[in-house]
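Box 3.1 A note on notation
Throughout this textbook, protein chains are presented in two layers. The first layer is the amino acid sequence; the second is a C-alpha cell string describing backbone geometry. Keep the layers aligned when reading.
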Amino acid sequence: MGKKSNVLVGIDIGTTKTIAIVGEVKPAGIDIIGVGITPAKELRKGGVVNIDSTVEAIKKAVEDAEHMSGCRINSAYVGIAGSHIKGQNSLGIVAVKGREVGEDALQRAIEASKAIAIPVDREILHTLPQSYVVDGHDGIRDPLGMSGVRLEAKVHIVTGAAASIQNVVKSVNRVGLDIEDVVLEQLAASEAILSPDEKDLGVALIDIGGATTGMAIFAEGSIKHTATLPVGGNFLTTDIATGLRTPFAEAEKIKLNHGCAMTSMIPKEDVIEVPSVGGREARMVSRQILGRIVEPRMDEILNMALKEIVRSGYEDLLAAGIVLTGGSSLLPGINEMAEQIFDMPVRRGCPSGVGGLSDAANSPAFAVGVGLIVYGSKNIPSDSVYRKTGNVFGEYFKALKKWFLEFF
C-alpha cells in the first residue's frame, strides 16, 4: 500500500463508534475510497475515559479503511466533541497601515480577537471569521483591497478543555498517526451536509450524537453560534433498557430496528420481541409501549435544542430551518416531531457532494467523517501544532527556543 499526496483521512471518535473515512481529492471533487467502523465503548459525554480501548478502536477502524482504500494512512483530521466544548463571539480591532486592507491587517485583526480571558486549562480550537467592519461599514465578508483606517474582525472562537483535547491527540498518536488538525464535530458535519444557500439564509445544524448533541447556527454565510447539549442517543437506549427490562445491547438493536419518535405514527397492532435478562424467556411487547418510552426523551432533546436557539438570539434568522444529523436523526418520525417543536422546516442531513464509495457513507452517522475530509480539502494546514508531539505547548516552546537562539 502506498501513500498518496491527494488522499485525506477523517477520524470521528464517537461515543458509540469510531469511524475512519478515506477520501481522494480530485479536480472534479472528492471521492470516498475507504471506510472503517468499529464500536467504541470507552468515551463518556464525548471525552476519552480509557485511552487503551480508544486506541484499539481507532486502530481497527483505520486498518479497515486502509484495506478498503489500498492506501497507507499516516495522518488524519480528527473530530472532537463533548460537554467541555464552548463557543463565544469576539471582536478584534486594528489600525490599517497604508489605508488599504491587506492580508497582514486581516491576520492582525483576527489575532486581536483572541485577546479574551481564557482559563489556563482551556485551549482555542478554532477562530472562525464571521464578517468585517471597515471604518464603520458593517457586514463585509472580504475586505481585502478596501480603503480605510480602522478594521474590525468579528469572529467566533471555539475552545475546549486542554486535557480532553490532549487525550484525543494522544490516542491518535499512539496508533502511529500524525494529526493534521482537530476539528469541532458539528463544524465538520456542516461542511458535508449544509449548502451555501442554507448558510446564507440562516440554518441551525443539530448533530445528535451518542452522549452529546452538538449545535451550530449559521447566518449570512458564516457561523454565529455553537453549543453542546449534555444529552444524546445513548439516553434513548438507556430508557429503553430500563423501561423494557432488557440488556443495553438489545435495547440498542430495538431502538435501531423498531424505534419511532412519535407514538401516534405506530400502528396499534405492531408488536416486537424483547429479550429478557438473566436467562428468562423473551417477551412480546406492543411497539406503542416502545414509542411511549422513546417519545418523551426525543421531545426533551429537541426542546433543549430549541431553548439553546432562543438563547442564542438567532431564532428569527433561520429562514432555511433546521437540519438534523447524527445517528439518532435516522429515527422515524423525528422530522415530524421537530417541525412541530421548532415550527419551521426540518430535513435530515446526509453527506452530499462526494463521489466514489459515497453510498457506503451516505448516512447521517457518517456526516462528521465525510465532513472532516471536506474541511481538510479547504483548510490544509502548513504545519499543524498537533503533529508529531501532539502537544501544542511543546511546539510553542520549541519555536520560542529557536527564536531565542537566533537573536541571542
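The longest strand covers residues 122-134. The CA atoms of residues 91 and 119 lie 19 Å apart.
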